[in-house]
Design brief:
Layout lengths: L1 H7 L2 H21 L7 H25 L6 H14 L8 H20 L1 E2 L2 E2 L3 H12 L14 H15 L2 H19 L5 H15 L10 H21 L5 H12 L9 E10 L4 E8 L10 E5 L11 E5 L9 E6 L6 H7 L6 E4 L16 E6 L4 H12 L6 E7 L8 H6 L5 E7 H4 L4 H7 L7 E7 H14 L6 E6 L4
Parallel strand pairs: 9-10, 9-12, 10-11, 12-13
Antiparallel strand pairs: 1-2, 3-4, 3-8, 4-7, 5-6, 5-8
The protein binds flavin-adenine dinucleotide (FAD).
Flavin-adenine dinucleotide (FAD) binds next to strand 6, strand 7, helix 12 and strand 13.
Amino acid sequence: MIKTWLSQTSMYRLMIYYLGALLLAGMALSMFGILPYVWWHIGFDFAILWLSCALTSWLCAKIFRTQRNPESELITALILALIVGPLDPLIYSNLLLLAGVGAISQASKYLLAINKKHIFNPAAVAVLLAALFLHQGASWWVGDRHLLWIMVIGGALILHKLRWFHLSLSFLIPYLAVLTAQQGWRLDYLAILSPLLFFSTVMLIEPLTSPTGRRKRILYGVCTALILAGLINYSSLPYTLELALIIANFAFWWTKIKQRIILKFINKEPGAKDIYKFWFEPLKKFSFRPGQFLQWTLPHSRADDRGTRRWFTIASSPTEEKVLLTTKFSDRSSTFKQALRELKPGAEIATSDPDGDFILPIDPTMKLVFIAGGIGITPYRSMIKYLLDTKQSRDIIIIYAAKTAEEFSFKELLAQATEIGLNTIYIQTEKTGFITPEMIKKEIPDWAQRTFYISGPEPMVEAYEKMLKETGIKDAGIRTDFFPGYE
Ligand SMILES: Cc1cc2nc3c(=O)[nH]c(=O)nc-3n(C[C@H](O)[C@H](O)[C@H](O)COP(=O)(O)OP(=O)(O)OC[C@H]3O[C@@H](n4cnc5c(N)ncnc54)[C@H](O)[C@@H]3O)c2cc1C
């Protein structure tokens, strides 16, 4: 049940629930005297921050002629409410300070930005500037051990949803290792861990300021940890956490500025059953590797719980001029998909940079099996078209499973791919059932020497990964790409 809920809740909503739970718990614990704050100060501080964030963002969006993102404003206001104060809002100077911090956070998104992408984490930059110029920085009151359990649960849900445990851990492990090496095992780990857990599961992982690609993200986590350790050891500054993040944001900014991708919608074509292909023209050609994905932002009115952003694989190949998005529509589509279906030719849509490690191996002699479940064929479509266009032969067996024959997409391309050694086995699950270890062993005699790729809806990927492990394939021989949101 949790998995289904997680899969259907947008990242923004999940973050709002996590931060909201921390704020409410902070108020409740203060009410019962467990935390030393006045409970309503916390609520009022948040209200002022939220109002200031919303007003500044609204104004900046008008000036810069762009769309505001109310969910992102709310997240920044919640973060600020959890790390600043709590302050008595009835004192005029506190009121001004809170309004100022909120305003700086939003203004920084527009002013400290290149190609309309902000460089610094907005909450971190706001508290740092407030410390430098208004002489009141962050207290990090949320880093209290009584709130640790919410951070463990909320942080785990966020990292699971993003599949970004590697980023949080690549920060936590080196930082705690340096601290332990310096001070020994007698450290009060609980006290140290609380603010670090908040930092690494909320602020460090902000997708817009963290690098794309798993390796770069690990490096980013390690560098942030080392910068923090350096600042604590070699400076007397009181605002080391936020400064470490700002320095790391700046240091890794080059990885984010390469391209700003705007795609112009050209047309849509019906594909297999319930599937549509959407063709776009990039305003500026951009580079990506076959199999990678983009995060697509489609602002639309009255967006449902799932929000205005989605990840979609680039189903076209880098050898093609146009960009292809292929997706499936259900009887009751999300508002995002409804807006996508109603796009008019010429409409522009912004995306993130390409991301993802679900790509072809560098070694062309590696024997592969591609398992696709329904719409999970999209990354393979990009890889296959690329191999065909660049005339590369590879030893790849494609197992393509869908409920019925009408649900198979890109059949012509798959037939053409036999020219370069790619053979497809179609499985109609309604007739033959799901892929089994026996089926794998029968159809692929050299299965033990192959690397398996699995792509499709999340529950299907999990089930096939389990099945492959039961067949005797080790973790290292399995690569997955999951599509959340589908049942
Ligand atoms: C790396 C990556 C790559 C991806 N690539 C692709 C791709 O190439 N193609 C692709 O199609 N998907 C891809 N996805 C998945 C995609 O991001 C969406 O999650 C998925 O398409 C579901 O879209 P949707 O949420 O708009 O729901 P829909 O497709 O509209 O609906 C899915 C199900 O949820 C129900 N539903 C819809 N809205 C709501 C709601 N508000 N509340 C409750 N139930 C609702 C529907 O009735 C239906 O049963 C990818 C995901 C990732 C992470």
